[in-house]
Amino acid sequence: MADRVTVLFFAALREQIGQESLSVTIPASGVSVAALRTQIEGADPAIAQALADQPKLRVAVNRTLSTFEQLVTPGDEVAFFPPMTGG
Amino acid sequence: MADRVTVLFFAALREQIGQESLSVTIPASGVSVAALRTQIEGADPAIAQALADQPKLRVAVNRTLSTFEQLVTPGDEVAFFPPMTGG
Amino acid sequence: MVVHVAVQAAPFDVGVEAERLSALSPLTGGVGLFVGQVRGGQGLRAMTLEHYPGMTEGTLHALAQEALARFDLTGCTVIHRVGRLEVGAGIVFVGAGAAHRGAALMATSFLIDRLKTGAPFWKREEYDDGRTIWVDARETDEEAARAWMSNPTA
Amino acid sequence: MVVHVAVQAAPFDVGVEAERLSALSPLTGGVGLFVGQVRGGQGLRAMTLEHYPGMTEGTLHALAQEALARFDLTGCTVIHRVGRLEVGAGIVFVGAGAAHRGAALMATSFLIDRLKTGAPFWKREEYDDGRTIWVDARETDEEAARAWMSNPTA
């Protein structure tokens, strides 16, 4: 329970995956966003497909837009989503 | 009475001259705005001074911005004013 | 493409004017608006807006039509007040509706830039110490208006 | 310099928001405003605006602060609606007050350009024939946002 991150999906991604959040165990030392992505893709083919269908996938770590190199540590909130279309 | 134009003054010009309109007799064949200006300056030193005090004097003939070369014919309305400052 | 133009002593209602533009067409995606108001400071108490009654409305209509011709709009509005206006009071309202925001925002800038030096209004400022001063046309305003003239396709 | 930010399901009142900006300071000479609304056509019936509740308000506040840092403003406002909105309904309101119109109008453009691709909102369109489509980010919107990034002093 301690070494977990919350993963959120929004918009088309949430709809395609059919769930809006996951709780994922990671090493206490942390992983990159890219490694976290590979981990959740490996665990669920529907997630792998949905993420692959987003050529311009965006990620936010702790509610701030981030890169896929960003380090994620336990307790973080990581959100994946398509390009934003507000306004 | 037939060969007259109405001359209007606005803003600082109106205030300095102390009147807002004149009726001026011109030749039936018309005159340029520049000639009309010379005519009214000659008739009233206060007008001459007020127009001279406006280095960027503007003129409208029949309610359309015009040049000083524009021909003015009897019945026209000619307005002199400083640069406009709306908005 | 609907034009609404008014020259009036009464205040304008920005909410009503915004709604007028929003409701012009179901194809409107964006509405740009600008309100100019009497800016205080340096002891300014009020301004009096003088205009050339016979010429003003025609000039504003021509300006609105030029905006319609230049930008892809669903409509536009120009309202200018006249008379004595205290600090904080609205002087001018311009707005434009369009399918896309770029046209709406460009037309809004165009209308206010051109109106500043291209319509027969004059401002007389009134200060706390009793001085009254006719506002000089600002060179930057004339440049802003000229920029639109030298760029007729924007 | 006062910032007003809101994320809400309820409609916004453009008149109230314009007045809020006008009244911020006696030194305000101009207020720029923009309203984005659901554009109809091609059988579009409504849109649903989804957002990232924990992130949205912070992003909008950061955007408003960036506008204050970039332009000489008396204040600015960003309001974005969420939920289902029918054709003609307001989606977004941005506005900025300033001593001079240039800053107010530039800030208004900046806020809407950056908000389009820089805040966590997503639009799902709903058509008369029952189709629903997630709106793709437009390349022109991303260019408009990038233009402000490569021009940090404007």
From TrEMBL, chains A, B:
InterPro entries cross-referenced by the UniProt entry: Beta-grasp_dom_sf (IPR012675), MOCS2A (IPR044672), Mopterin_synth/thiamin_S_b (IPR016155), ThiS/MoaD-like (IPR003749)
GO cellular-component term (any): molybdopterin adenylyltransferase complex
Keyword set includes Nucleotide-binding: yes
Pfam families recorded: ThiS
Gene3D superfamilies (UniProt xref): 3.10.20.30
Record-level GO BP terms: Mo-molybdopterin cofactor biosynthetic process
Molecular functions per Gene Ontology: nucleotide binding
Residues that span the membrane, as ranges: none
Keywords: Nucleotide-binding
NCBIfam families listed in its UniProt record: moaD
PANTHER family noted in UniProt: MOLYBDOPTERIN SYNTHASE SULFUR CARRIER SUBUNIT
Family statement drawn from the similarity comment of this UniProt entry: Belongs to the MoaD family.
UniProt-recorded name of the protein: Molybdopterin synthase sulfur carrier subunit
Protein source organism: Acetobacter fabarum
From TrEMBL, chains C, D:
Assigned keywords, A-Z: Molybdenum cofactor biosynthesis, Transferase
Entry keyword annotation includes Transferase: yes
BP GO terms, sorted: Mo-molybdopterin cofactor biosynthetic process
Enzyme Commission identifier(s): 2.8.1.12
Name of the protein: Molybdopterin synthase catalytic subunit
Species annotation: Acetobacter lovaniensis
CDD domains: MoaE (cd00756)
Family according to the record: Belongs to the MoaE family.
Keyword Nucleotide-binding: no
Domain of life: Bacteria
InterPro entries in alphabetical order: MoaE_sf (IPR036563), Mopterin_biosynth_MoaE (IPR003448)
Known pathway: Cofactor biosynthesis; molybdopterin biosynthesis
Catalytic reaction equation(s): 2 [molybdopterin-synthase sulfur-carrier protein]-C-terminal-Gly-aminoethanethioate + cyclic pyranopterin phosphate + H2O = molybdopterin + 2 [molybdopterin-synthase sulfur-carrier protein]-C-terminal Gly-Gly + 2 H(+)
Subunit structure: Heterotetramer of 2 MoaD subunits and 2 MoaE subunits. Also stable as homodimer. The enzyme changes between these two forms during catalysis.
PANTHER family (alphabetical): MOLYBDOPTERIN SYNTHASE RELATED
Gene Ontology molecular function: any one: molybdopterin synthase activity
Described purpose of this protein according to its UniProt entry: Converts molybdopterin precursor Z into molybdopterin. This requires the incorporation of two sulfur atoms into precursor Z to generate a dithiolene group. The sulfur is provided by MoaD.
Pfam families linked to this entry: MoaE
EC category name: transferase
